[in-house]
């Protein structure tokens, strides 16, 4: 290559060896001398002129000047084929040889002696870029290679002189084949109007065709759907349907999987229906010797003849009672005084009165139901007793809210400054005495109350 001959010679005077590296100007020996500080002779041209005829330049190496040494020629500059007047001479210098190899037009080389001391430039006119190969810079070298000017196979496409890149085609036609499947198709057309296929009203997306025809061309190689071979008929005898699976149509294939044959099995003989075992029912039995309604009734309630009924008042009442060893407390709603109310079929009644009536019958006229346990919410029958209105008041437990003694019937008498004991009976008040101690007055009240009422009670009257 011309570029290498211009840069790879040692710069030392009279040395014809190549340079050590592309960053050095001297060969290995002279480079070593310079590294070790050895004095070298000054670089100057050799004495005498160039051996080339009519060349007046000083000798540089091998009896030639820098230009003729770099071109490797001993002939006169006018004897090269690249000169303006070749005069039929069949020899050429290395610079023009590179132009011939690159299929570039022959141009006159620069014969300036100073050109040999720098890196060679491109042989194309008006281009001074460094040489890459074949005497051309990278741009002209790639252009010559792309168009097949450096030799090698040419693109197989018609009227294309570019160099082959892959599968015998240049880069342009390879890209067309990948994108469009056609060597003659140009650039892609996106939303460029109607589809190029005749009779297609859709809008073109890629390659002048709609997406449907592009998919067909990519899959089948053509815009038309391939003709599918006709499916064979069903293998079942007497069936003219098309086979779908295993040589049978859908109907006979399902029969084959279910019954093991393409023919339907014979229908079983109908069973003689038996009547329902429930008396008075004329329906046919379906399960457990019952008809469908009685069987469903048995599944839901455990009894085939179960009928819905409304619970009685007593059943509803005792559902609201929490029974225990002591009082049976009402779990429903209570009034402000702590008593419960219950709604029966005939009306609303106190819960403790209904409980006593349920066990003992009707309440005697003029009597009330008294709580022996003094618990208004209790409805236990043995904790209840009938009492006259006066007795019920007498049976009351505890003092009034304004009593300061803590005992019912015991009050403070301010004049005598003693605790006075008094008992009310049948609208009258009976005096039981005055005492210094309120408890002694309380005992007197209890004794007087028992005397007047004639009853025995676990209550101490307090």
Provide structural commentary.
The chain starts with a helix and ends in a 9-residue tail after the last helix. It is 25% helix and 8% strand. The strands form 4 sheets. It has a 3-stranded antiparallel beta sheet. The protein has 462 residues and is an alpha+beta fold.
Mean pLDDT: 75
Q: Tell the overall outline.
A: elongated
Low-confidence stretches: 1-7, 38-47, 74-92, 111-119, 456-462
The main β sheet shows up as:
3 strands, antiparallel
Helical stretch tally: 13
Q: How many individual β-strands?
A: 9
Secondary structure class reads alpha+beta
Rg computed from alpha carbons, rounded to a whole number of angstroms: 66 Å
Query: Could you give the order of strands across the largest sheet?
Result: 7-8-9
Q: What is the strand content?
A: 5-15%
Distance N terminus to C terminus? 139 Å
| Percent range of helical residues | 10-25%
